[in-house]
Amino acid sequence: MTTKTLGVVMNGVTGRMGYRQHLLRSVLAINEQGGVSLAGGDRVLLDPVLVGRSEAKLADLAARHGIAKWTTDLDAALADPAASVYFDSQVTSARVPAVLKALEAGRHVYVEKPTAETLEDAEALAARAAASGLKHGVVQDKLFLPGLRKLKRLIDGGFFGRILSVRGEFGYWVFEGDWQPAQRPSWNYRSEDGGGIVLDMFPHWAYVLENLFGRVESVIAKAVTHVPVRWDENGREYKATADDAAYGIFELEGGIIAQINSSWDVRVNRDELVEFQVDGTEGSAVAGLRRCRVQHRSATPKPVWNPDLPATHSFREQWQEVPDNEEFDNGFKVQWEMFVRHVMEDAPFPYDLASGARGVQLAQLGLLSSAQGRRIEVPRP
Fold it and tell me: To 5 degrees, how large is the angle CA 176–CA 177–CA 180?
Protein backbone atom coordinates (compact mmCIF):
# COMPACT_ATOMS: atom_id res chain seq x y z
CA MET A 1 0.00 0.00 0.00
CA THR A 2 1.29 3.45 -0.92
CA THR A 3 0.14 6.95 0.00
CA LYS A 4 -0.24 9.43 -2.84
CA THR A 5 -0.77 13.20 -2.75
CA LEU A 6 -3.29 15.13 -4.80
CA GLY A 7 -2.85 18.90 -5.04
CA VAL A 8 -6.12 20.87 -4.82
CA VAL A 9 -6.46 24.58 -5.55
CA MET A 10 -9.31 25.80 -3.32
CA ASN A 11 -10.76 29.14 -4.39
CA GLY A 12 -13.31 30.82 -2.10
CA VAL A 13 -12.60 29.02 1.17
CA THR A 14 -12.63 32.24 3.21
CA GLY A 15 -16.42 32.21 2.86
CA ARG A 16 -18.70 30.47 5.35
CA MET A 17 -19.56 27.41 3.26
CA GLY A 18 -16.16 27.09 1.61
CA TYR A 19 -14.39 27.13 4.95
CA ARG A 20 -16.70 25.11 7.19
CA GLN A 21 -17.92 22.39 4.85
CA HIS A 22 -15.23 22.09 2.20
CA LEU A 23 -11.93 22.96 3.87
CA LEU A 24 -12.52 22.10 7.52
CA ARG A 25 -15.04 19.24 7.41
CA SER A 26 -13.99 17.70 4.09
CA VAL A 27 -10.41 18.23 2.90
CA LEU A 28 -8.77 18.56 6.32
CA ALA A 29 -11.00 15.84 7.78
CA ILE A 30 -9.98 13.50 4.96
CA ASN A 31 -6.31 14.07 5.77
CA GLU A 32 -6.94 13.54 9.48
CA GLN A 33 -8.41 10.11 8.73
CA GLY A 34 -5.36 9.17 6.67
CA GLY A 35 -6.62 10.10 3.22
CA VAL A 36 -9.07 8.67 0.71
CA SER A 37 -8.90 4.91 0.28
CA LEU A 38 -8.65 3.59 -3.30
CA ALA A 39 -9.82 0.25 -4.64
CA GLY A 40 -6.33 -1.25 -4.68
CA GLY A 41 -5.57 -0.32 -1.08
CA ASP A 42 -3.61 2.88 -1.75
CA ARG A 43 -4.56 6.10 -0.01
CA VAL A 44 -4.65 9.70 -1.25
CA LEU A 45 -3.85 12.72 0.91
CA LEU A 46 -4.99 16.16 -0.26
CA ASP A 47 -2.56 19.08 -0.48
CA PRO A 48 -4.69 22.25 -0.44
CA VAL A 49 -3.61 25.55 -1.97
CA LEU A 50 -5.84 28.32 -0.60
CA VAL A 51 -6.83 31.06 -3.04
CA GLY A 52 -8.83 34.21 -2.38
CA ARG A 53 -8.84 37.99 -2.51
CA SER A 54 -7.83 38.79 1.07
CA GLU A 55 -4.22 38.13 2.07
CA ALA A 56 -5.10 38.63 5.74
CA LYS A 57 -7.90 36.07 5.73
CA LEU A 58 -5.86 33.53 3.77
CA ALA A 59 -2.84 33.94 6.05
CA ASP A 60 -5.03 33.50 9.12
CA LEU A 61 -6.66 30.31 7.77
CA ALA A 62 -3.31 28.87 6.72
CA ALA A 63 -1.73 29.58 10.10
CA ARG A 64 -4.68 28.17 12.05
CA HIS A 65 -4.66 24.89 10.17
CA GLY A 66 -1.00 24.46 9.30
CA ILE A 67 -1.52 24.89 5.54
CA ALA A 68 1.70 25.80 3.76
CA LYS A 69 0.35 27.14 0.46
CA TRP A 70 -1.86 30.15 -0.09
CA THR A 71 -2.02 32.97 -2.62
CA THR A 72 -4.19 35.73 -4.07
CA ASP A 73 -2.87 34.89 -7.57
CA LEU A 74 -5.10 32.24 -9.15
CA ASP A 75 -2.93 32.07 -12.28
CA ALA A 76 0.12 31.19 -10.20
CA ALA A 77 -1.79 28.53 -8.27
CA LEU A 78 -3.05 26.91 -11.49
CA ALA A 79 0.46 26.99 -13.00
CA ASP A 80 1.77 24.71 -10.25
CA PRO A 81 2.08 21.23 -11.84
CA ALA A 82 1.44 19.61 -8.46
CA ALA A 83 -2.10 21.03 -8.34
CA SER A 84 -4.25 18.64 -10.39
CA VAL A 85 -7.70 19.72 -9.15
CA TYR A 86 -9.39 23.11 -9.02
CA PHE A 87 -12.24 23.63 -6.55
CA ASP A 88 -14.50 26.71 -6.67
CA SER A 89 -16.81 27.97 -3.91
CA GLN A 90 -16.67 31.67 -4.76
CA VAL A 91 -19.70 33.89 -5.24
CA THR A 92 -21.61 32.69 -8.28
CA SER A 93 -20.76 35.74 -10.38
CA ALA A 94 -17.03 34.92 -10.22
CA ARG A 95 -17.29 31.19 -10.94
CA VAL A 96 -17.42 30.83 -14.73
CA PRO A 97 -14.22 32.72 -15.68
CA ALA A 98 -12.25 31.00 -12.92
CA VAL A 99 -13.42 27.50 -13.88
CA LEU A 100 -12.71 28.17 -17.55
CA LYS A 101 -9.23 29.30 -16.58
CA ALA A 102 -8.71 26.08 -14.62
CA LEU A 103 -9.86 23.94 -17.55
CA GLU A 104 -7.53 25.85 -19.86
CA ALA A 105 -4.70 25.05 -17.44
CA GLY A 106 -5.57 21.35 -17.69
CA ARG A 107 -6.99 20.98 -14.20
CA HIS A 108 -9.87 18.73 -13.16
CA VAL A 109 -12.66 20.89 -11.72
CA TYR A 110 -15.06 20.43 -8.84
CA VAL A 111 -17.44 23.32 -8.19
CA GLU A 112 -20.21 24.53 -5.95
CA LYS A 113 -23.60 25.29 -7.37
CA PRO A 114 -25.13 27.10 -9.08
CA THR A 115 -22.43 26.61 -11.68
CA ALA A 116 -23.33 29.92 -13.37
CA GLU A 117 -25.79 32.80 -13.23
CA THR A 118 -27.31 31.97 -16.64
CA LEU A 119 -28.17 28.77 -18.47
CA GLU A 120 -26.12 29.89 -21.47
CA ASP A 121 -22.98 30.13 -19.30
CA ALA A 122 -23.74 26.90 -17.43
CA GLU A 123 -24.18 24.94 -20.67
CA ALA A 124 -21.06 26.49 -22.20
CA LEU A 125 -19.08 25.52 -19.12
CA ALA A 126 -20.39 21.95 -19.26
CA ALA A 127 -19.58 21.69 -22.98
CA ARG A 128 -16.06 23.04 -22.47
CA ALA A 129 -15.43 20.57 -19.65
CA ALA A 130 -16.77 17.64 -21.67
CA ALA A 131 -14.57 18.56 -24.65
CA SER A 132 -11.48 18.83 -22.45
CA GLY A 133 -11.46 15.20 -21.40
CA LEU A 134 -10.83 16.33 -17.83
CA LYS A 135 -12.82 15.17 -14.80
CA HIS A 136 -15.51 17.58 -13.68
CA GLY A 137 -18.10 17.53 -10.92
CA VAL A 138 -20.66 19.63 -9.06
CA VAL A 139 -21.41 19.59 -5.35
CA GLN A 140 -24.84 17.99 -4.82
CA ASP A 141 -24.59 17.65 -1.06
CA LYS A 142 -28.22 17.13 -0.12
CA LEU A 143 -28.24 13.69 -1.75
CA PHE A 144 -25.83 12.61 0.99
CA LEU A 145 -27.84 13.85 3.95
CA PRO A 146 -28.75 10.99 6.33
CA GLY A 147 -32.46 11.79 6.05
CA LEU A 148 -32.47 11.70 2.26
CA ARG A 149 -30.30 8.58 2.15
CA LYS A 150 -32.91 6.84 4.32
CA LEU A 151 -35.60 8.16 1.98
CA LYS A 152 -33.71 6.75 -1.02
CA ARG A 153 -33.54 3.40 0.80
CA LEU A 154 -37.34 3.44 1.15
CA ILE A 155 -37.81 4.29 -2.53
CA ASP A 156 -35.44 1.57 -3.68
CA GLY A 157 -37.20 -0.94 -1.42
CA GLY A 158 -40.63 -0.17 -2.89
CA PHE A 159 -42.03 1.13 0.39
CA PHE A 160 -44.23 3.82 -1.18
CA GLY A 161 -45.92 1.80 -3.89
CA ARG A 162 -46.79 4.37 -6.54
CA ILE A 163 -45.46 7.77 -5.44
CA LEU A 164 -48.13 10.45 -5.72
CA SER A 165 -46.62 13.65 -4.39
CA VAL A 166 -43.68 15.35 -2.70
CA ARG A 167 -43.99 18.37 -0.43
CA GLY A 168 -40.89 20.22 0.66
CA GLU A 169 -40.41 23.01 3.18
CA PHE A 170 -37.05 24.76 3.39
CA GLY A 171 -35.96 27.89 5.17
CA TYR A 172 -35.66 29.93 8.32
CA TRP A 173 -35.73 33.56 9.39
CA VAL A 174 -32.63 35.42 8.23
CA PHE A 175 -32.29 38.56 10.32
CA GLU A 176 -32.32 41.82 8.43
CA GLY A 177 -28.98 42.89 9.90
CA ASP A 178 -30.07 46.02 11.78
CA TRP A 179 -30.82 44.92 15.35
CA GLN A 180 -29.29 41.45 14.96
CA PRO A 181 -26.53 40.43 12.50
CA ALA A 182 -27.75 38.51 9.46
CA GLN A 183 -26.67 34.85 9.35
CA ARG A 184 -26.24 34.90 5.57
CA PRO A 185 -23.98 37.20 3.49
CA SER A 186 -25.54 40.35 2.09
CA TRP A 187 -24.76 39.48 -1.54
CA ASN A 188 -27.43 36.75 -1.29
CA TYR A 189 -30.04 39.55 -1.37
CA ARG A 190 -28.64 41.53 -4.32
CA SER A 191 -29.49 40.25 -7.79
CA GLU A 192 -26.64 42.26 -9.30
CA ASP A 193 -24.22 40.14 -7.25
CA GLY A 194 -25.77 36.80 -8.21
CA GLY A 195 -28.10 36.58 -5.21
CA GLY A 196 -31.62 35.24 -4.92
CA ILE A 197 -33.17 32.17 -3.34
CA VAL A 198 -34.33 30.76 -6.71
CA LEU A 199 -30.80 30.71 -8.12
CA ASP A 200 -29.55 29.38 -4.78
CA MET A 201 -32.11 26.66 -4.03
CA PHE A 202 -33.75 25.56 -7.31
CA PRO A 203 -30.47 23.89 -8.43
CA HIS A 204 -30.70 21.86 -5.19
CA TRP A 205 -34.30 20.89 -5.87
CA ALA A 206 -33.40 19.96 -9.45
CA TYR A 207 -30.90 17.28 -8.44
CA VAL A 208 -32.92 16.08 -5.44
CA LEU A 209 -36.05 15.58 -7.55
CA GLU A 210 -34.16 14.13 -10.50
CA ASN A 211 -32.13 11.62 -8.49
CA LEU A 212 -34.90 10.50 -6.11
CA PHE A 213 -38.17 10.81 -8.01
CA GLY A 214 -37.71 11.56 -11.69
CA ARG A 215 -37.03 14.22 -14.29
CA VAL A 216 -38.73 17.60 -13.85
CA GLU A 217 -41.09 18.18 -16.78
CA SER A 218 -42.60 21.55 -15.86
CA VAL A 219 -42.48 24.29 -13.25
CA ILE A 220 -44.85 26.91 -11.89
CA ALA A 221 -43.17 29.32 -9.50
CA LYS A 222 -43.70 32.58 -7.68
CA ALA A 223 -40.56 34.39 -6.55
CA VAL A 224 -40.91 37.39 -4.23
CA THR A 225 -38.85 39.79 -2.16
CA HIS A 226 -40.68 39.87 1.15
CA VAL A 227 -38.08 42.00 2.98
CA PRO A 228 -37.10 44.93 0.74
CA VAL A 229 -34.47 46.56 2.96
CA ARG A 230 -31.56 44.90 4.79
CA TRP A 231 -28.24 45.86 6.41
CA ASP A 232 -24.88 44.52 5.26
CA GLU A 233 -21.84 43.22 7.18
CA ASN A 234 -20.71 46.79 7.91
CA GLY A 235 -24.09 47.92 9.20
CA ARG A 236 -24.97 49.84 6.04
CA GLU A 237 -28.57 49.82 4.85
CA TYR A 238 -29.12 48.50 1.32
CA LYS A 239 -32.00 47.68 -0.99
CA ALA A 240 -32.70 43.95 -1.34
CA THR A 241 -33.03 43.45 -5.09
CA ALA A 242 -33.08 39.64 -5.14
CA ASP A 243 -35.92 37.25 -4.33
CA ASP A 244 -35.85 35.95 -0.75
CA ALA A 245 -38.74 33.46 -1.02
CA ALA A 246 -40.03 31.17 -3.77
CA TYR A 247 -43.06 28.92 -3.99
CA GLY A 248 -42.82 26.23 -6.65
CA ILE A 249 -44.87 23.39 -8.14
CA PHE A 250 -42.92 20.87 -10.21
CA GLU A 251 -44.50 18.19 -12.41
CA LEU A 252 -42.25 15.13 -12.63
CA GLU A 253 -42.18 12.21 -15.04
CA GLY A 254 -44.61 9.51 -14.03
CA GLY A 255 -47.21 12.04 -12.87
CA ILE A 256 -45.60 12.89 -9.50
CA ILE A 257 -46.39 16.41 -8.26
CA ALA A 258 -43.77 18.16 -6.10
CA GLN A 259 -44.46 21.35 -4.17
CA ILE A 260 -41.49 23.06 -2.53
CA ASN A 261 -41.48 26.29 -0.54
CA SER A 262 -38.12 28.03 -0.10
CA SER A 263 -37.90 31.04 2.18
CA TRP A 264 -35.50 33.14 4.22
CA ASP A 265 -38.54 34.86 5.77
CA VAL A 266 -40.15 31.97 7.64
CA ARG A 267 -39.99 31.03 11.31
CA VAL A 268 -39.41 27.33 11.77
CA ASN A 269 -42.23 25.17 13.11
CA ARG A 270 -40.92 21.78 11.98
CA ASP A 271 -38.33 19.37 13.28
CA GLU A 272 -35.58 20.34 10.84
CA LEU A 273 -34.67 23.26 8.56
CA VAL A 274 -35.63 21.24 5.50
CA GLU A 275 -38.24 18.50 5.33
CA PHE A 276 -39.79 16.51 2.50
CA GLN A 277 -43.04 14.61 2.84
CA VAL A 278 -43.51 11.85 0.28
CA ASP A 279 -46.94 10.27 -0.10
CA GLY A 280 -47.54 7.02 -1.97
CA THR A 281 -50.29 4.48 -2.35
CA GLU A 282 -48.66 2.10 0.14
CA GLY A 283 -47.06 4.50 2.61
CA SER A 284 -45.72 7.96 3.41
CA ALA A 285 -42.47 9.36 4.80
CA VAL A 286 -41.16 12.64 6.17
CA ALA A 287 -37.41 13.11 5.69
CA GLY A 288 -35.23 15.93 6.95
CA LEU A 289 -31.52 16.55 7.31
CA ARG A 290 -31.02 13.55 9.60
CA ARG A 291 -34.36 11.96 10.51
CA CYS A 292 -36.83 10.00 8.45
CA ARG A 293 -40.22 8.83 9.73
CA VAL A 294 -42.75 6.60 8.01
CA GLN A 295 -46.38 5.62 8.15
CA HIS A 296 -47.33 2.48 6.27
CA ARG A 297 -50.74 1.90 4.71
CA SER A 298 -51.47 -0.84 7.27
CA ALA A 299 -50.79 1.54 10.16
CA THR A 300 -52.53 4.64 8.80
CA PRO A 301 -55.17 6.03 11.22
CA LYS A 302 -58.62 7.03 10.03
CA PRO A 303 -59.00 10.70 10.94
CA VAL A 304 -62.49 12.18 11.05
CA TRP A 305 -62.97 15.92 10.57
CA ASN A 306 -64.78 17.42 13.55
CA PRO A 307 -63.85 21.03 14.35
CA ASP A 308 -66.14 21.02 17.41
CA LEU A 309 -63.91 18.67 19.41
CA PRO A 310 -60.22 19.05 20.33
CA ALA A 311 -57.75 16.47 18.99
CA THR A 312 -57.13 13.80 21.63
CA HIS A 313 -53.94 12.37 20.11
CA SER A 314 -50.70 13.55 18.49
CA PHE A 315 -50.52 12.91 14.77
CA ARG A 316 -46.71 12.98 14.91
CA GLU A 317 -46.65 10.11 17.40
CA GLN A 318 -48.39 7.88 14.86
CA TRP A 319 -45.25 7.75 12.70
CA GLN A 320 -42.35 5.30 13.01
CA GLU A 321 -38.66 6.27 12.96
CA VAL A 322 -36.49 4.78 10.22
CA PRO A 323 -33.29 3.38 11.81
CA ASP A 324 -29.86 4.56 10.69
CA ASN A 325 -28.58 1.02 9.94
CA GLU A 326 -25.21 2.54 8.98
CA GLU A 327 -22.77 5.29 9.91
CA PHE A 328 -23.48 8.56 8.11
CA ASP A 329 -20.43 10.71 7.47
CA ASN A 330 -20.51 14.41 6.53
CA GLY A 331 -22.22 14.62 3.13
CA PHE A 332 -19.76 17.13 1.69
CA LYS A 333 -16.85 14.93 2.75
CA VAL A 334 -18.45 11.80 1.25
CA GLN A 335 -18.81 13.54 -2.11
CA TRP A 336 -15.24 14.86 -1.95
CA GLU A 337 -14.04 11.28 -1.47
CA MET A 338 -16.11 10.19 -4.46
CA PHE A 339 -14.60 12.92 -6.65
CA VAL A 340 -11.05 12.08 -5.54
CA ARG A 341 -11.65 8.44 -6.55
CA HIS A 342 -13.12 9.68 -9.82
CA VAL A 343 -9.91 11.61 -10.54
CA MET A 344 -7.48 8.97 -9.29
CA GLU A 345 -9.04 5.72 -10.56
CA ASP A 346 -11.94 6.76 -12.82
CA ALA A 347 -14.54 5.63 -10.28
CA PRO A 348 -18.13 6.61 -11.18
CA PHE A 349 -19.21 10.20 -10.51
CA PRO A 350 -22.57 11.08 -12.11
CA TYR A 351 -22.81 14.65 -10.78
CA ASP A 352 -21.03 16.45 -13.62
CA LEU A 353 -21.28 19.99 -14.97
CA ALA A 354 -24.14 18.92 -17.26
CA SER A 355 -26.20 18.07 -14.15
CA GLY A 356 -25.19 21.46 -12.75
CA ALA A 357 -26.50 23.12 -15.91
CA ARG A 358 -29.86 21.40 -15.45
CA GLY A 359 -30.05 23.00 -12.01
CA VAL A 360 -29.40 26.44 -13.46
CA GLN A 361 -32.01 25.71 -16.13
CA LEU A 362 -34.66 24.98 -13.51
CA ALA A 363 -33.80 28.21 -11.67
CA GLN A 364 -34.00 30.23 -14.87
CA LEU A 365 -37.33 28.66 -15.85
CA GLY A 366 -38.64 29.24 -12.32
CA LEU A 367 -37.82 32.94 -12.57
CA LEU A 368 -39.41 33.08 -16.03
CA SER A 369 -42.55 31.39 -14.71
CA SER A 370 -42.74 33.89 -11.87
CA ALA A 371 -42.26 36.87 -14.19
CA GLN A 372 -44.84 35.68 -16.72
CA GLY A 373 -47.29 34.06 -14.30
CA ARG A 374 -47.53 30.80 -16.19
CA ARG A 375 -46.52 27.14 -16.28
CA ILE A 376 -43.22 26.52 -18.11
CA GLU A 377 -42.29 23.17 -19.62
CA VAL A 378 -38.72 22.00 -19.15
CA PRO A 379 -37.16 21.14 -22.54
CA ARG A 380 -36.04 17.53 -22.87
CA PRO A 381 -32.27 17.06 -23.12
Answer: 105
